[in-house]
Write a structure and sequence with these properties.
It comes from Gossypium mustelinum. Its main location: plastid. This is 4-hydroxy-tetrahydrodipicolinate reductase. Keywords: Amino-acid biosynthesis, Chloroplast, Diaminopimelate biosynthesis, Lysine biosynthesis, NAD, NADP, Oxidoreductase, Plastid, Transit peptide. The structure is a single chain. By secondary structure, the chain is of the alpha/beta class. It contains 9 helices and 15 strands. It folds into 2 domains: 155 residues, 2-Layer Sandwich (Dihydrodipicolinate Reductase, domain 2), CATH 3.30.360; 153 residues, 3-Layer(aba) Sandwich (Rossmann fold), CATH 3.40.50.720. It has a 6-stranded mixed β-sheet. The two termini are 16 Å apart.
Length: 339
């Protein structure tokens, strides 16, 4: 699947986009189809879950790292298992999930993974950690479980990668700091998207006010089940605000209707259940100059591959007994050892 980033000048000319109006209405019928046209400058970034050969004498730790994927009954959890298996990691046959999924057996990549509910989790995790002392937990559960899960991982002492969004983030970091476990915590695991966001943050820091007076229009399309505004969109908008653009978060045009996603945004029908299309359009005060930033993600492979890189990164930090304990995807990117 691909993540597409575009930067263009004066792409829209004087044409107004109905779905990027300044109206406070966040959803509604869109009168015309708008296609995402090619721009003069295009950066196309692609990830896949194909089998990857690893050099056993590289700086990476033992590639057969045992991982426990919590939330394996969900689509993201399953994607991580497929990516991990393709990368040669060892997925242990145990997972935690909501009570409604307790007792299920998830069969994937030739493995049978038994799902446990909330009860007796500490004993089970301690037992798994004893059997697999190099274990790293991957968490893709639900926002309501973030803090309890982090507390559990800290209590048992198992390193973890937290891809689940939501929860009390301040409390999350406090829990990890007090437990002194190793962790990679990031609500955005797509490496290329993280790199784009990092570049935006650098630009905002070094050139504050560079886009003063410009107007901003933002559209983001996600699967219908995502009810809140994208955290990535909020982060990008924050950068634009530092660059001098006046914009309120409630001006974001959220597209959640499948018909609009297909006809207006151009989301392939097979990816309606899992996609992230973002468009940011800047226009100068006299409307003679415009800039467009776009990143489109179909499916979940980009996040799953990033998660696997985070696991490999964290395993190395644990093995080296690094002083720093809490990391994010920027740290993973900076390490430079991504597959």
């Amino acid at each position: 699947m691909a993540s597409l980033l575009k930067a263009s000048s004066n792409v829209f000319l004087s044409e107004k986009l109905p779905f990027l109006s300044r109206s406070k209405t966040r959803q509604g019928v869109v009168p015309k189809k708008v296609t995402f046209r090619s721009a003069p400058v295009t950066l196309s970034l692609t990830t896949s879950t194909g089998t990857v050969e690893h050099d056993p004498i590289s700086n990476s730790p033992d590639i057969a790292i045992p991982i426990m994927v919590n939330g394996c009954a969900g689509k993201m959890g399953k994607s991580v298992i497929q990516a991990a298996d393709s990368a040669g990691l060892h997925v242990v046959p145990v997972s935690f999930d909501a009570e409604k999924n307790s007792g299920q057996t998830v069969e994937l990549c030739g493995k049978k993974i038994l799902v446990h509910g909330p009860s007796d989790r500490e004993r089970i995790l301690a037992s798994v950690f004893q059997e697999y002392p190099n274990l790293i937990v991957v968490d893709y559960t639900v926002p309501a479980a973030v803090n309890d899960n982090a507390e559990l991982y800290g209590k048992v002492g198992v390193p973890f990668v937290m891809g689940t969004t939501g929860g009390d983030r301040d409390q999350l970091y406090k829990t990890v700091e007090e437990s002194k476990v190793y962790a990679v915590i990031s609500p955005q695991m797509g490496k290329q998207v993280v790199a784009f966001l990092a570049a935006m943050e650098i630009m905002a820091e070094q050139f504050p006010g560079a886009f003063s007076g410009y107007s901003l229009q933002v559209m983001e399309s996600h699967q219908a089940g995502k009810l809140d505004t994208s955290g990535t969109a909020k982060a990008i908008i924050s950068c634009f605000q530092k660059l001098g653009v006046s914009f309120d978060m409630d001006q974001v045009q959220m597209i959640r209707d499948p018909k609009q996603q297909v006809e207006m945004v151009g989301v392939p029908e097979e990816h309606l259940s899992g996609h992230a299309f973002h468009l940011y359009h800047l226009t100068s005060p006299d409307q003679t100059v415009s800039f467009e930033f776009q990143h489109n993600v179909c499916g979940r492979s980009i996040y799953a591959e990033g998660t696997v890189d985070a696991v490999l990164f964290l395993a190395k930090k644990v093995k080296l007994k690094a002083d720093k304990r809490i990391y994010n995807m920027i740290d993973v990117l900076r390490e430079g050892n991504m597959r």
